[in-house]
Design a protein that fits this description.
- The chain is of the alpha+beta class and about 250 residues long.
- The chain has one domain: Alpha-Beta Complex (Creatine Amidinohydrolase).
- The protein is built from 4 helices and 15 strands.
- The chain has a 5-stranded antiparallel beta sheet with strand order 8-7-9-14-15. Strands 1, 2, 4 and 5 form a 4-stranded antiparallel beta sheet that branches. It has a 3-stranded antiparallel beta sheet with strand order 3-12-11, with no helix packed on it.
């Protein structure tokens, strides 16, 4: 069941997402060659707790960390460790919190030092696909309008959209209905309505869309070893169009 949020509930979700946005904004300055990924995780958790928020991912279905850190061929759910960021890596940072009963969730992918032109292009196209999808999050549109818009940007650029992992509704729970695929057909799916909050999150592979899960049970990698990028915003559907709750400063 899709849960529509009241205006005051959307404001609570906005407060949660502001904390997420602050954490991701501050992490941008921390991402550089030589940094251990576990130190980024600790930093994110400390900021959230200082703001009175609880990291959303820690303990969720047994996930042991606060931040998902996905490097190069890792699509999603990469786990912080003693691994050190290297010059030329790209790194996806996925973070969420629960604050005053509502969840926020967002993701950015960043270059580590100087990266290749092809890596930059992958990140740019993935972020562009997110904002193109968000433009379709309009009262009266269909869910497939978001999905098709994302897919078109990605595939027109010669990349592929991950099928096995999708976006989702969000609110009092981290994952709510509906699922939000990054592929689909315009005019299909449920009608979008004022009061929906959606986490739209394109996961885009440089090569084939197929992925596989590593033995740790969490880390998802591209099956062909190609690079992957991931961007996400939590947005509310309003009478005035999509409202990006997790907008970074």
């Amino acid at each position: 069941m899709v849960i529509l949020k009241l205006p005051e509930e959307i404001e609570k979700a906005r407060a949660s997402n502001r904390i997420v946005a602050e954490v991701l904004s501050r992490l941008r300055d921390k991402v550089k060659p030589g940094v251990k990924t576990k130190d980024l995780d600790k930093f994110a958790e400390e900021i959230a707790e200082k703001r009175g928020a609880r990291p959303a991912f820690k303990g969720y279905h047994g996930y042991p960390h606060s931040l998902c850190i996905s490097i190069n061929e890792v699509v999603v759910h990469g786990m912080p460790s003693d691994r050190v960021l290297q010059e030329g890596d790209i790194v996806g940072l996925d973070f969420g919190v629960c604050y005053q009963g509502f969840y926020g969730d967002a993701t950015i992918t960043l270059p580590v030092g100087r990266v290749t032109d092809k890596a930059l292009r992958l990140m740019q196209v993935t972020e562009q696909s997110l904002y193109t999808g968000i433009e379709q999050a309009v009262n009266g549109n269909r869910l497939g309008d978001i999905s098709a818009a994302v897919q078109k940007v990605v595939e027109d650029a010669g990349y592929s959209v991950v099928r096995d992992f999708v976006g989702h509704g969000i609110g009092k729970n981290l994952h709510e209905e509906p699922q939000v695929p990054n592929f689909g057909q315009r005019g299909r799916g449920i009608e979008l309505k004022r009061g929906m909050i959606l986490a739209i999150e394109p996961m885009v592979n440089e090569g084939h869309y197929k992925v596989q899960i590593q033995p740790d049970g969490w880390t998802v990698v591209t099956k062909d070893g190609s690079l992957s990028a991931h961007f996400e915003h939590s947005i509310a559907i309003t009478d005035n169009g999509p409202d990006i709750l997790s907008k970074l400063s």
